[in-house]
Automatic annotation (TrEMBL):
It catalyses: Couples ATP hydrolysis with the unwinding of duplex DNA by translocating in the 3'-5' direction; ATP + H2O = ADP + phosphate + H(+). Gene3D superfamilies: Nucleic acid-binding proteins, P-loop containing nucleotide triphosphate hydrolases. The lineage of its organism: Bacteria, Pseudomonadati, Bacteroidota, Chitinophagia, Chitinophagales. It comes from Flavipsychrobacter stenotrophus. GO terms for molecular function: 3'-5' DNA helicase activity; ATP binding; ATP hydrolysis activity; DNA binding. It comes from the Bacteria. Pfam families: DEAD, Helicase_C, RecG_dom3_C, RecG_wedge. This is ATP-dependent DNA helicase RecG.
Amino acid sequence: MNNGTSILESPIEFLKGVGPMRGELLRTELGIATFEDLLYHFPYRYFDRSQITKIAAVNGLTEFAQFAGILINIGEEGDGRKKRLTATLYDDTRRIELVWFQNINWVKKSITEGERYIVFGKVAHYGGYYNISHPEIEAWNSDTNIPGRQPVYSTTEKLRLRGITNRSFAKITQSLFEKVKPHDIPEILPSAILSQYQLCNRYSAIRWLHYPDTEHHEEMARYRMKWEELFISQILIGRLRLQHTIQRGWIFDKVGGAFNTFFNHHLPFQLTGAQKRVLKEIRQDTATGRQMNRLLQGDVGSGKTIVALMSMLLALDNGFQACIMAPTEILATQHFNSISGLLEEMGITIKLLTGNIKGKERKAILAGLADGSLSFVAGTHALIEDPVIFKNLGLAVIDEQHRFGVGQRAKLWKKNELPPHVLVMTATPIPRTLAMTLYGDLEVSVIDELPPGRQEIKTVHRRDTARAKVMEFMRHEIDKGRQAYIVYPLIEESEKLDYESLMQGYEQVKMWFSEDRYRTAMVHGRMEAELKERNMARFVKGEANILVATTVIEVGVNVPNASVMLLESAERFGLSQMHQLRGRVGRGAEQSYCILMTGSKVGEESVKRINIMVSTTDGFKIAEEDLAMRGPGDMYGTKQSGVLKFKLADIVHDSAILEETRHAALALLTADPRLELPQHQGLKTTLRNHASQSHWAKIS
Ligand code: ADP
Ligand code: MG
């Protein structure tokens, strides 16, 4: 075991070929401070350097290649910043040009005309001439050993400029393996797992990842390290889940006045079967004396709000406070509005707490939550900030959870003596693989039934050239009494161009829909909150026929009378985003439409996204496609959460390994929940190190 004296902790500058200056560079540029850091800086590809190509064999398809020949015509061209060094390599078949723009003096000193060299690099071609800029070049004599597969490491411009080229990087990692021996990299997986899943040992895996002697070994190494990464995440999640099952929680054993009064007298519609089933699951969970950790998945419009509210009423009936938390101000406000509306006749108060609520009002809310006189609160992450103290928080509903990190979820725990029950709601269906890594610790409920009377939304793709027809269609819908959204992409609220195109769009809409007959409202992120709210309210109340908006309306807005969703420059929207927006219509009984407008030239990926939207309304399918197209990094704000930071594994492509590790983790934890067996000690140490570096620590 490495208990503090391991060679892996040696500072990187002590490695042969590094030294203080390069050491400092590696530390600041790549965060490589120790031998161990370098060990885990895996190459991202390999060059096959076992072959020497004849220069005459180069053609337009040649990418990286290695040549051997005599260097002639070394010379400098240009001056000042445009100065460059050129040379020609000549083998017995043809010539190829070599060029350097940087480190010229240094290179010049290290090459000699008429000598033999091995040259390796990326071949570029300009009008029939081939050249290589900044090649790796090495004297070629009888004891030059030609490497086989050469690792290629990610590096930075600055490192390259300071002479840490890929070749020298490879030399450094080579000297690393002269120092680091098998016993320095002990196995952490139990041998039973190694043999059951046919994994190679840890030392070999790491070594082979840097220096695979065969392709087969490279594959084995990669597989092993991916397996380990995913396995560790599954063990962490598994332990969390285990902890939930033993974590004591408040007991909600009464279904009392508030719940029943609401159910019998104030419910605006009949619950769907799915809503009833989920409520029952929540009631069962909260009555056990253990903490509930439940994920509620339901597509947009499936009716999650009412389930949240009724769960909150359940908390109230049992003498507890409840909160509902959303990722944005708009969504928090929307929840606040719809819940206060539903509660109005019952005389129960809910307050809104966001970063914008300040002064006296804020003080009063905080006081109410602390002394228990306020039972319900809706808000943004302001709710989990430190000054907010609840007297007895029994239930926390978290909407659109994917934007909250696992760590933030854990913060709720600190709010009282026992943790509150947690209901996480998400409108974005989560692909199974992602759910397994992000929410593997939660029980899952699904609302898989839409409220009755909904018709499938018709989705079409239209080009700008058909704008007149589209506007005609929209007018027809509006004349029937419907309302319409027109949404512009806005990546950053500060994007000037986006803002301008929104403004132009708004002017255009007012031309198509003359002000004497039609009312148009606009909302965007640059507006004062008050004006934004007023305009939004005009649309919600039906006073405006058209809402021109940016993606600020993406989540939350609920206007059942709206039947048209027009997305401008639809090629710029992501799949999940389009799905969310489309979910704003089709909420009433009317046939609804989603129109995806694009210019005539649209990229391949965008066409693919648009076609998926046209072909299905199934949120799960769309989420899977989105995950496959974009990868998990960008989705669901997981980048910041740190949960999915795998070095090698990728949950889309490695879903089979993920399943396998989940299985293995479950089996291991069932047999040894506290990791007490001697064969699990290596794993336990790893987990401890892992946890101290990430959000996970806050949970366990
Ligand atoms: P989401 O799951 O997207 O949060 P909401 O809770 O906002 O969905 O519900 C969408 C719309 O459907 C709302 O107008 C809501 O009042 C309505 N709704 C919810 N449940 C039912 C139901 N069982 N019957 C009829 N309408 C319902
Ligand atoms: Mg909702």
